[in-house]
């Protein structure tokens, strides 16, 4: 979706996240939640598209995160919205691992 990576922001050590865990970091003014799922890393904006709740603080069920406020669900891997009351996908961010460190792409 028109991504142009301007910078890779160093976040945490890859080893800081166990399977099913997440960390929330600030990337260029965005709150970004990075999850480790099935041995891979995925980053979504930590803002529910329904009413702005911090979605990463909700329950993770499989690859879906459940918004703690009203129960909307989003796929952590794709950002795709899975159930009401949210109707818009949540933003995703590219993640990579370099020398054992997680890096998230900042948007240009
Ligand atoms: S704020 Fe997330 S479902 Fe309402």
UniProtKB/TrEMBL annotation:
Pfam families: Rieske (PF00355). Residues 9-104 form the Rieske domain. One of its GO terms (molecular function) is 2 iron, 2 sulfur cluster binding. InterPro entries: Rieske_2Fe-2S, Rieske_2Fe-2S_sf. The keyword Iron applies. It comes from the Bacteria. SUPFAM superfamilies: ISP domain. Keywords: 2Fe-2S, Iron, Iron-sulfur, Metal-binding. This is Rieske (2Fe-2S) iron-sulfur domain protein. It comes from Methylomonas methanica (strain DSM 25384 / MC09).
């Amino acid at each position: 979706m028109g991504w142009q990576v301007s910078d890779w922001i160093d976040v945490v050590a890859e080893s800081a996240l166990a399977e099913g865990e997440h960390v929330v970091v600030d990337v260029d003014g965005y709150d970004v939640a990075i999850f480790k799922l099935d041995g891979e890393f995925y980053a979504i904006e930590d803002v529910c598209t329904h009413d702005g709740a911090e979605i990463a603080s909700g329950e993770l069920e499989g690859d879906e995160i459940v918004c703690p406020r009203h129960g909307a669900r989003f796929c952590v891997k794709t950002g795709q919205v899975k159930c009401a009351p949210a109707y818009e996908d949540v933003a995703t961010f590219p993640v990579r691992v370099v020398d054992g460190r997680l890096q998230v792409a900042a948007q240009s």
